[in-house]
Amino acid sequence: MVLPFWLAFGAGSLLLVPSGVFFAECVSAVAGKAKPPPALGRRPRLCVMVPAHNEAAGIGATVDGIRRQLVDGDRLLVIADNCSDATAEHARRAGAKVLERFHETERGKGYAISFGLAHLESDPPEVVVLVDADCTLSDSSIDTLSRLALAEQRPIQAEYLLTRPGVPSPLATISALALIVRNRVRPLGMHKLDLPCHLTGTGMAFPWALIRNTPALGDNLVEDLVMGLDMAVAGHPPKFCLEAKVRSVLPDSKQAATSQRTRWEHGQLATLMSRGPRLLRESVRQRRPDLAALALDLMVPPLALLVTTLGASAVTGGVVGLLIKKPLLTMAPALLGLGMVGSGTALAWSRFARDTVPFHILIMTPAYVAWKIPMYVALAVKGKQKSWVRTERQPAADAADVPPRNPTRGGEGQSRGNGAAARA
């Protein structure tokens, strides 16, 4: 029984690493010393770029919100990528310059970003700000992000959270809490420790030379995460900016929520496995603790998966422990991990989510974990999801009065078939 004991004990012990990192980030966010507002330089020549796929329902509101923050000389560019609806028409009507891109096989946000950057090549801005097509930004966010990106010559990430729909289900409320922990609490904890953060997909500002020289992203579903890792290895780690805030609305149906979370978490897990070890190697080779911190943060799996694996490890350890009459010993690492994750989550909830997630909803977390398990099974059986699929949300009123775009018709900035531009 020696081998089963060490297997059970070792598995639980390995899980103490991500559990400990998670706990340390939560404690730092709650108890760490607050940072003063960042020093901002001059406002750069900037372009806000909005990749969009079938976003006719909300693109008008997004463009309106962005335009209110622009000044003379700023540019706003919407990339309507493989759209079969009226996204381009709505964006133009709201005042954005629109490029339309169509390609039979190359589909994804990464391709859209590459196409937009290629268009800007002839007259590049100093800073590019990326905003998703379903987002709203707090006042002065574009100004703050662009100034900080220019001053520090590194990517800057705004705080990005998903708000609950009008009548949220308990599942949507717990999902909102999970995003608060992932996109506010943990980056804030890293920031208070003077460490970089990961990019989270929207509300990101980049110096032109930095984003233009980033390898093409293709159909990667977490192109933002990969982009940030590549830039960090090259000496430009992303920085978290709490003063700039970006918001989007959670899907209001269980099916749409499942689809959205599946895309995100499949991409995150695939990146964890493919990039985590390399990042650790680079931290040693370059003698850079900041890369090691990013690698450790990357190795923290989605919260539900971490809890699930810790629970499975505790049960396995208990079974093995009963056979050798030492159940507490074999279960100890997993139980300690569960304690750290539970304590970190409780701290985060108490400080950052008490007003939005009532306690009676919080105790339904096990149901949220159970909802997520099929996603991880699908990843193990089928592999990661690859397509860029728009998350369905409650439709907006302005989407009904413009007919869908005919993909075969010519138009401003249009690219067809295999002629779509991409970064080299």
TL;DR?
With 424 residues, the protein is α/β, with parallel strands linked by helices. Helix content is 52%, strand content 11%.
Write a structural description.
Helix content is 52%, strand content 11%. It is built from 15 helices and eight strands. Strand 1, helix 3 (59-67) and strand 2 form a beta-alpha-beta unit. Helix 2 runs parallel beside helix 13, helix 10 (254-285) crosses helix 15 and helix 12 runs antiparallel to helix 13. The model is unreliable at 395-424 (pLDDT under 50).
Q: Helices and strands, in N-to-C order?
A: HHEHEHEHEEHEHEHHEHHHHHH
- Please report which band the strand proportion falls in: under 5%, 5-15%, 15-25%, 25-35%, 35-45% or over 45%: 5-15%
Report helical residue fraction.
40-55%
- N/C terminus separation: 56 Å
Mean pLDDT: 84
Radius of gyration, taken over Cα atoms and rounded to an integer in Å: 22 Å
Low-confidence stretches: 395-424
H/I helix tally: 15
Please outline the major beta sheet: 8 strands, mixed
Structural class determined from secondary elements: alpha/beta
What's the arrangement of strands in the largest beta sheet?
A: 3-2-1-4-7-6-8-5
3D shape:
globular
Number of strands: 8
Give the topology.
Elements: H1 2-14, H2 16-31, E1 46-52, H3 59-67, E2 75-81, H4 87-94, E3 97-101, H5 109-120, E4 127-130, E5 136-137, H6 141-152, E6 156-163, H7 170-192, E7 204-207, H8 208-212, H9 223-233, E8 239-249, H10 254-285, H11 289-298, H12 303-324, H13 327-353, H14 359-362, H15 365-382
Parallel strand pairs: 1-2, 1-4, 2-3, 6-8
Antiparallel strand pairs: 4-7, 5-8, 6-7
